[in-house]
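thought: user wants a sequence for this fold. calling inverse folding tool.
action: design(structure=
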């Protein structure tokens, strides 16, 4: 079926990292599958279409042949088509990115073909694979976290992916606080109870400066009892007794 090898074709598949098999070999494998599809279609076909879906060991393959009346009829896919698509799927694996899960391969006379390989969109299963099939898929064709679709996680029973925004929103500004240190083989050391804070008497006055010393006696204002008298108090002369600061009293003629 040389028409498949020389006809025009297109493919949509995984991109980025190079596949584990060289592209020239993948092209040869694709054409070999096409020849087996045409051989299975028989005479008078106007279109032949292969659909392949697989995760892990779960495989579903369909082959539809359209005749001159335009009606597509299912045909049992030969082992060469099923095995060839399985080898093509393994050869197109890209490390960390995975490989395709669903593929559609169509051929029309005189030999034009189109292939679509999708690694991220869930195909329409005849029977949904069990969770172990998706787990086996990741073991056979490992994927990085960012390349595991949400629907795949749900089918495999995996927890939902946590976005970078969610991670940053749930982290305190100064990082995640560390738990208290635990001594080897024991519980964290008990902290002594803290009593109420003790208020210290400041060495300074209420205005923030030092307490002012009492003024000297000579700076005291004169009492109301008369000029030169001082009120009794610390550092002050008594109100009674000699009056060293008062005016001299009257002197009699005898000098007393």
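)
observation: tool returned 256 residues.
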């Amino acid at each position: 079926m040389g028409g498949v090898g020389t006809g025009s074709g297109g493919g949509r598949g995984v991109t980025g990292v190079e596949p584990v098999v060289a592209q020239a070999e993948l092209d040869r494998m694709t054409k070999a599958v096409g020849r087996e599809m045409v051989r299975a279609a028989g005479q008078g076909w106007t279109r032949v279409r292969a659909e392949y879906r697989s995760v892990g060991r779960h495989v579903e393959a369909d082959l539809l042949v359209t005749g001159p009346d335009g009606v597509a009829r299912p045909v049992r896919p030969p082992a060469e088509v099923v095995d060839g698509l399985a080898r093509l799927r393994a050869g197109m694996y890209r490390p960390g990115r995975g490989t395709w899960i669903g593929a559609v391969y169509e051929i029309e006379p005189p030999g034009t073909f189109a292939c679509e390989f999708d690694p991220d969109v869930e195909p329409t299963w005849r029977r949904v694979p069990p969770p172990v099939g998706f787990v086996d898929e990741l073991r056979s064709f490992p994927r990085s976290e960012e390349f595991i679709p949400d629907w795949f996680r749900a089918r495999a029973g995996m927890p939902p992916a946590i976005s970078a925004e969610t991670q940053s929103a749930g982290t305190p500004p100064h990082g995640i606080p560390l738990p208290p240190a635990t001594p080897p083989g024991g519980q964290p050391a008990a902290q002594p109870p803290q009593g109420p804070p003790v208020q210290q008497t400041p060495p300074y006055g209420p205005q923030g400066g030092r307490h002012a010393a009492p003024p000297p006696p000579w700076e005291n204002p004169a009492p109301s009892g008369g000029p030169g008298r001082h009120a009794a108090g610390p550092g002050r002369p008594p109100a009674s007794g000699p009056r060293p600061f008062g005016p001299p009293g009257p002197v009699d003629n005898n000098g007393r």
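thought: summarizing for user.
answer: Here is the designed sequence. Confidence is low (pLDDT under 50) at residues 1-13, 173-179, 201-212, 224-256.
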